[in-house]
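Sample entry (169 residues):
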Amino acid sequence: MRLTNLIPLKIGSLLLLSFCLSSCISVNLGPSPVTTATDVSYTSPSSPFKEMASAPSADKTWIHSKSKSIITYLSECGDISHIRLKEAAATSFKAQDLKLIEQKSVTQSGQPALQSRGEPTDPKKNVMVEMINFKTKDCLFSLAFVASKNHFDEDHPTFDQFLKSFKAP
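Predicted structure, serialized as C-alpha cells:
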C-alpha cells in the first residue's frame, strides 16, 4: 500500500477522534450523559466502501477499499440547546489543524445545517474534508467525508447519496 493512500485514513481517524474531543470540549453537557441517536435511518455507502468494524468515536464509519476515502457519522444526544453549528465545526477543524476553505448553510434531514469544507494546513498532506453539522431537538450530528485530493471528486457522489438517505428525526 502506498503511503499516500494512508493519509486519508490517518486524517479520518484523527477526525473521528476530534469529533469526540470537540464535543466534549465545546458541548460541555455537564451532569447529563451523552448518548448516541438510536432512531436514524440511512442507506450504507455502496461497494467498494466497507463498514469498519470498530471505528473509535463514531456511530458508523465506512472506508473505500482502494482509495481509503472515509464516510462517517457521529451523533451526540443530550442537552445541546446551547451548541452553535459554526462553533462545533470550527472546533473539529481546529483540533485537526484543518483550514476552512468553504462554509455554507444547507439543509440536512429537514433541519438547518452547516456544510464545511477544508484541508490540512500542512500542504504536504493531500487530503480534503467535508463535514455537515446539524441539530435535531436533542442531538447534534456530524457527517463527514475524508478523501485524498486525487479521489475527492471521484468518491464524493457516494457521500452525496449517503447524505440524501440520512434521516434523523
